[in-house]
Amino acid sequence: MAASSYTPANPESVFTYGAPQLKFGPGASDEIGYDLAQTGAERVLVVTDPGVAATGHPQRVADQMTAFGIEARVFDGAHVEPTDESMRHAVEWAREHGPWDAIVAVGGGSSIDTAKAVNLLTTNPGDLMDYINKPVGEGRAPVNPLHPLVAVPTTTGTGAESTTICVLDVLALKVKTGISHVRLRPTLAVVDPVLTRSQPAGVTAAAGMDILCHALESYTARPYTSYERKRPEQRVPYNGANPIGDMWSEKAMSLLAGSFRRSVHDGSDEAARTEMAMAATFAGLGFGNAGVHIPHANAYPIAGRVKGFHPDGYPADEPMIPHGMSVALTAPEAFRFTFDADPERHLRAARLLDPQAEQTRDPAEFLPAVLAALMRDIGIPGGIGAVGYDEGDVPDLVEGTMKQQRLLATAPRDVTEEDVAGIYTRSLSLW
Amino acid sequence: MAASSYTPANPESVFTYGAPQLKFGPGASDEIGYDLAQTGAERVLVVTDPGVAATGHPQRVADQMTAFGIEARVFDGAHVEPTDESMRHAVEWAREHGPWDAIVAVGGGSSIDTAKAVNLLTTNPGDLMDYINKPVGEGRAPVNPLHPLVAVPTTTGTGAESTTICVLDVLALKVKTGISHVRLRPTLAVVDPVLTRSQPAGVTAAAGMDILCHALESYTARPYTSYERKRPEQRVPYNGANPIGDMWSEKAMSLLAGSFRRSVHDGSDEAARTEMAMAATFAGLGFGNAGVHIPHANAYPIAGRVKGFHPDGYPADEPMIPHGMSVALTAPEAFRFTFDADPERHLRAARLLDPQAEQTRDPAEFLPAVLAALMRDIGIPGGIGAVGYDEGDVPDLVEGTMKQQRLLATAPRDVTEEDVAGIYTRSLSLW
User: Fold this and answer.
1) Which of B14, B16, B248 lies nearest to residue A27, judging by beta carbons?
2) Which of the 8 DSSP states describes residue A238?
3) What's the angle, vertex CA B410, arms to CA B405 and CA B413, rounded to 5?
4) pLDDT of residue B81
5) Longest alpha-carbon distance in chain B
6) Going by fewer Cβ within 10 Å, which terminus of chain A is more open, N or C?
């Protein structure tokens, strides 16, 4: 296990690994009716958002279930970037039209996370706020088992099909937070690359950077052995870097090396799309048990304080910085900052992501250089300056990052306000 | 995906992946009481065999549960190499002393497989024979869900903690067969390397060859894309070689390269034991979704027709050829036979297993040479001649192998009686 600046008195010796069952490949989404019939399900709720509903995939999945004697209804009111309000609306609808035996989410992370909340609150009593992480909510654990949840991602990025968390904005408090419990994890992930065919190049680029950062952040996370030994009741799904998370991350990075540029530049390249879907799944299976750190912590304020930026390939009706883009913008500088915690691991990651890249004279520059070259090639903006921030915004962004202590605690080094300010400042213009 | 001699008209495009949740590391077995309390369990059955019971681990696991309000009872009557008789005895005992809320298996593959049968038949009606694979049994699927099953392996080899099958001898028919259903898979695997400390060198060697063959056979198995497209109800847990199985297999082989010889030659090498436990788990997670082929098919008659062989490190009361040894004895020749189906993959496997080995002039010899060198170093007999078979036994062994069509169907080439006879004849004396 990697070197670390942490020296626990009684080091952790145990790590855990959990994952949904998986069905992967073109055509996999045609079999959901059969799979759910095996659980005895008779009434199934399909959760999606209006954009994905317009592709027809959610209704096709619902229709296909009737052959197995299942009555399926589509709820297409999931909000892209869910809020407490949008999730409560989904829960109320589901409670009113239930009971359900199983839930299917068809969509990106927003639909899958909304389905997790619906599953929780149609099987357990109370309100959203009872389960939201402390200090925003009560942080209660579910008392009842949840229904089977099938997650069918339609973007190649999120990883939400593998994770135990659902993320939402609490509007009144202007804070992004979540519900985190092992029972929220989908029971089955159905990854059908055919469903990602309609993804525009800009979405492939941004979502692909989310995949890449899932893999890189969990690969460079604080090793599980650098924590103090936990009691069983203290364990959380995010262990820090561990041998299984490392394996998924390495494989995801190799897949990205072969297919990321191709899938952005030629959306009709089926082989590249399938490899990107596989990379997304693998990275999800890794970070869901390891964790993410600085780039994801920075992504919250970068996306949340958006001014007037409108990215290619996304709906033009409101300004937004897509999640994967907001993660990517500070990644080169974040990994320059973490380099010293484990130089060998940073160099190996750079070589996995670009086996042809020439090593830089200063080894600490190698991974940042590989990332910047990739971001340029696939059309990611060249820093937070390019999406509308300037030096005067840095203190505000830093404040937003420092609220994400759950993520910063997974970084392989202690992270101070000054450190984060330096990362933001150097990320104003990356090239 | 690899080259193959199969050319399906409508190739499979989908593979599945399933696994238990995992808790890995020294001390992991101290937390089972907590983990089961989370499922609401109040009465738990611990299944083990007399040899493992004598180490005290099963009783310790049972005692530790009382702190969580769980009443746990140990059944130590699992038979090493379970039979229909031994499994029926276990089931009767469990039905008589139940009901149970959960089952814990502490031991090798025999205890874990016995626990799978007990779990099935304390949650579902009928007799063992109703569920045993056709044509020996009725091949029925369970109608009810099973209890949570925690598998705690005490040997580094079996992989039974990851798989959906339980293997047994049906005494009246003198045939080894099994029950195979996805619900048999343990819900949680607790892999605690501390429990393998008492394993003698001979057991580490034989069980390690089982790990190695799990990895190698699933890595060289017929690729999932070489099958005809299945309908969902035709899918089985064993997909053939697939990207996820490959990843686990490659990682398991790398771990074996670093620790197999060390763990046999120095049983007190904790780091090597931990890596062997990890290799066993990883190989199990791979082959449980890919499958095994010729060496495992040959292992059934090799072990089943044992004459007078007594291996080091095993009980001396009856002759036996340990499972891992019986798998290993024809492996070099089996992989010489499969070489042409995918030369690149066989060469890569040889390099993973021994990065220092010098490549042979004939590439088809490389993997067999690496395997034979390893087997010599760790004290595996030099062929089926060394465990008591001679040329006159070959037809009988071939007949036994040909009964394992379920396994032979996973081989990357068609396998005839003549092919198998050639493999056995050349395996009489390997060096």
Assistant:
1) B14
2) -
3) 95
4) 84
5) 64
6) C
Q: Match 């009465």 to its residue by tokens.
A: B43
Q: What pLDDT shows up at residue A5?
A: 63
Report the residue of chain A nearest B194, measured CA to CA: A13
Verify whether the Cβ–Cβ distance A244 to B22 is below 8 Å. Answer: yes
Q: Are A207 and A154 in contact (CB under 8 A)?
A: no
Question: In the Cβ-directed half-sphere of A208, how many Cα atoms lie within 13 Å?
Answer: 33
CA B314 to each of CA A193, B56, B214, B318: distance values in angstroms, whole numbers, following the listed order: 50, 19, 22, 10
Q: Which two tokens stand for residue A321?
A: 């910085």
Which of B61, B224, B244, B249 is best to mutate for the A interface (most A CBs within 10 A)? Answer: B244
Query: What's CA A411's distance to the chain center, in Å?
Result: 17
- Chain A CA closest to residue B18: A21
What lies within 8 Å, CB to CB, of A262 at 6+ separation is A269, A272
Please state the length of chain B. Answer: 431
Cβ distance of B27 and A18 shorter than 8 Å: no
Residue B357: DSSP 8-state: P
Q: What are phi and psi of A271, to 5 degrees?
A: -65, -40
| Closest Cα in chain A, distance from residue B141 (Å) | 11
Element (H, E) at A334: helix A331-338
Question: How many whole angstroms separate alpha carbon B104 and alpha carbon A374?
Answer: 49
Could you tell me whether strands B102-107 and B43-47 are parallel, antiparallel, or unpaired per DSSP bridges? parallel
Answer yes or no: do B22 and A25 touch at CB < 8 A: no
What structural domains does chain A harbor?
A: 28-191 (3.40.50.1970), 201-426 (1.20.1090.10)
Q: Hey, are the CB atoms on B14 and A31 less than 8 Å from each other?
A: yes
Arithmetic mean of pLDDT, B50-74: 95
Q: Give the pLDDT score at A26.
A: 95
Q: What does DSSP say about strands B15-17 and A21-24: parallel, antiparallel, or unpaired?
A: antiparallel
**Can you tell me the ipTM of this complex?**
0.94
Dihedral of the CA atoms B215, B216, B217, B223 (nearest 10)? 90
- Asked if A22 and B13 come within 8 Å (Cβ–Cβ), the reply is no
Q: Sort strands A102-107 and A71-75 into parallel, antiparallel or unpaired.
A: unpaired
SS3 content of chain A, % helix, strand, coil (to 5): 50, 10, 35
Chain B residues closer than 8 Å to A64 by CB: none
pLDDT at B1 over 50: no
List, in sequence order, every residue forming a beta bridge with A24; answer none if it has no partner.
A191, B15
Reported as type and span, the H/E element at residue B408 is helix B405-408
Q: Cα separations (Å) of B29 from A15, B34, B56?
A: 12, 10, 13
